[in-house]
Amino acid sequence: MKKLTVMIVSSVLVSSFLAGCTSNQEAPTKPKSITLNALFMKQAGYSEDAIKEATDAFIKANPNIKVETTFVPYEALEQKILVSNGSYDAVLIDAPWTAKFVKAGVLKEVTDKVSEAARKDIFDGALSAMQYENKLYGMPWLNDVKYLFYNKEMLTQAGISNPPATWDELIADAKILKEKKIVDFPLVWSWKQAEALSVDYTMIAASFGGQMVKDGKPTLNDKPNIEALNFMYQSMKDGLTNPSSLEYLEEDVRGVFSSGKAAFALNWTYMLGMANDPKESKVVGKVGISTVPGTSKGPGATTNGGMGLSIAKDSKYPEETWNYIQFLASKDFQKKHAKDALPIWKSLFSDSEVVATSPELISVSKSQYEHIVNRPVVPWYGQLSTELQTSVQKALAGKETPEDALNKLQEKAKEIASK
């Protein structure tokens, strides 16, 4: 009887021990299923279909992760992010918003998540747009800048063999075109009182060697900035710039150029395809693209219109969100959709398949991307841009001299920066 009792007790103890071992060495459980929410914009750059297709591929590769995508108009994107209160994990941000969003505490820092090798392969202008105070707050994703577009046929009729390399050459060519009555207003711009005007002024001022902000302080009335605004005003006074430019946005510029009523226009990448689309344009096959003109001091700069993907500060799943962002920013995705937007990766500009999408554009971009400038990366950029648009418009309309307009703007900018 004692032996039987010992055997039973021993059996129970062994069973308990084995059960304990099993519980400590359980088979891996399935990862917890989570849902990420990502916020994008409706227009320009990568299409909704491209983003949704890539998102589906990410979900297939990560079956425990579901991703809900939301698309809003660009005009609603900034405010949507600021009031999101944890509604989104991944958010698309425009270059001028980085500093403001960091100060508002809505983005997670990702400085340590991007390797040195990756940084060296990304264009500096695209990377710097996601930085504030030497820290990184997002992954560059949508790459876009402005270029000089020109009507090849008009230039040939005027005896002009090459697109202008400097602003002086642009004015000289425009005068020839006007004198020969080839076109009434050779130049057309998006100079309406809107962000488009801030974009153009940033680009032109930088080409003259100017900066609007240095070391966090406004420098609006520096000599190069005044020279740039003088150039803009003079082009209108001389009847070379279409006077309706003061009411035009980028789509208006595209329409004027595509209808054959302008010889030169500055616009984003998308205009190249649309100006060569028979359904949209009367100048198909006559469209040239070149780098932004510069001065005798150096090549022309272009404004960064790129956007990045960031992790929202309140995201419950920052690691999974970063994996999703990396998936969308990958070379595979950007190579596949190079027709929609040029890659952020320098190495892809030597890829034969990418080059084949638009050889002329790729060739020009290699040069232009080395000279990208960002609108001032300061938390108060939004207020500065609003004041800038008003001041520049007054000068262009002849209501104030460029120097007076920028002197007054400088004082307003000091007030804004001090708050």
From TrEMBL:
Gene3D superfamilies: Periplasmic binding protein-like II. SUPFAM superfamilies: Periplasmic binding protein-like II (SSF53850). Residues 1-19 form the signal peptide. Keywords: Signal, Transport. The keyword Transferase does not apply. The keyword Signal applies. Coiled coil: none annotated. InterPro entries: Bact_solute-bd_prot1, SBP. Belongs to the bacterial solute-binding protein 1 family. This is ABC transporter substrate-binding protein.
